[in-house]
Amino acid sequence: MLASVKDILWEAKNNGYAVGAFNASNMEVAQAIIRAAAKKKCPAIIQVTEKTLSYAGDSVIVEVIKAVIEKESGSLPIGFHLDHGRSLEVVARAIELGITSVMIDASRSDLQDNIAITKRVVDFAHPKKVAVQAEIGNVPRLGEIDQNPNWDKIMTDPLEAKWLVEETGVDALAIGIGNAHDFFRERPEPDWERLDSIHKLLPDIPLILHGASDWVNHKVVEAVKRGVVCFNVDTDLRIAFNTTLCQFTHDKCDILDPRKILAEARDAVQKVVEKKIDLFRNLK
Fold first, then answer.
1. What's the CATH code of the domain at 64?
2. What residues act catalytically?
3. What domain range is 159 assigned to?
């Protein structure tokens, strides 16, 4: 069932585990995510980006995902979230389409502008009972900055994070502690002391880590101990989906029914999501 992302995050926070927020760009990936969550009997968050909304035609992909949630999840709580909304206009469009949780990413702006933009989104979204996630600090991606950044300058400043939350009233906060999007080279070891400081200053805010596709067991365990309740996963799903498509293209190009190929790709993504759910939930 379609459920509150805020409730899902707090359930994880109160019970000492993390949930996965998985990006979907088409029906098959959405099905894979929901089927994996249903198989594991664990709540999950499915999310779309601004690019996905534009590519698929806004209401089309939103209605597809909502239909998949309704059909596949039963009574299992599944959240629906906008990932990396860059402006109030994009966020407003997502809310109008029926997405019940949104991220406003003004992290590339200076602190004052980030606070101002985020506050506008919160003031718009909260009366509509839509949760808001903000981001502070830089979670880099390829092509944006040099592969060897000064991490101390781009990671989340704990005091600035506290200020942003207090000034805006956001429901969740995405932070940077050396994590990175896609194939950008991460900090050799996450800045655990920084995460401890953020959590100490903001004990009542669910903390989110983006760029978590390649995070392994010990990093996940340490992050959850220090207040992280949600890991965003996109790259690993793309790799599983695209690898399967490429295998068919090279080895089985005589198949004329695209559904056979897409079904195999869907199964590959589901296996990845199942492993991620186990990793985030069964912490030792």
1. 3.20.20.70
2. 83
3. 5-281
